[in-house]
Amino acid sequence: MSITTGVRVSEGLATLDAEPTRLAETLDRICTRWAGDMGAASLTVPPLAPVADLAPLDVYRNFPQLALVASALDVPATEAAHIEEAAVSGDFDPDVLCSAGLALSSSACYGVYLHYRDRQVRQDGELVTLLGQCFRNEDHFDGLRRLRAFRMREVVALGTPDQVEDHLSRSAAFLDALGREVGLPLERRAASDPFYDQSGARAAFQRVVPVKYEYIYHDMAIASVNSHFTFFGERCSISLHDGGAASTSCVGLGVERWLLALAEHFDADWGRAQRAVEKAEKALF
Q1: Single pTM value for the model
Q2: 130-159 residue pLDDT tens
Q3: Contact partners, residue 118, CB within 8 Å, separation at least 6
Q4: CATH of the domain at 186
């Protein structure tokens, strides 16, 4: 379904009018209320990260095709007129750019692991929530379903295997309840995790022990729960009190995909969708 009211999407970039913006805010409020009830602390991380910081997380090994990097104009080496001409044409050639040492993050939780880098988590673990702006250079874009820039509400746990597994169980229960109260028919489906290389031992392990479950609405994943085991704990030197690497897990909800699912389910009537989400909030809390 193509949403034509209240949403404008061009080149993978979405602009929302007042009604879908309000709906997104209400949905996010539900998520943050739930996260707060679970004891999560709110965190803010920058949308840009040094390339050198993301490299150890296998970002450029596993899916370099999705990467977007940021550069500056090489003004000292380029004539002003040439820069202006390039801007008018719609893009800058590599010869007018400095080297790109910054990246636009493709996943919200990267900033969390970098924030805890070289630190020891508390004995009862860490639980944080954030609304991240994510950027991906997809091979094609499709309305709110597949965007170049989108928002992800995440709740991330860092701690022992039992602590992060408990977070996954509570997250799954929340997603089940949210879908039920809103009226969205969601299917829980095992999936592969793009944090890991899809060849060799890691992929084989995922086929035996699923590390990611997606919540699907009409073949579109709108949320997921993910177990990373000690991958990020090892790569970012995040430790437990006994000196071992911390385990991590997260739940993520794609804001724009939730909007699309709600718009489709309520026949593009933002008012009906808003009332359903507000009713769900009252039922959940």
Answers
A1: 0.92
A2: 999 999 999 999 999 999 999 999 999 999
A3: 236, 237, 238
A4: 3.30.930.10
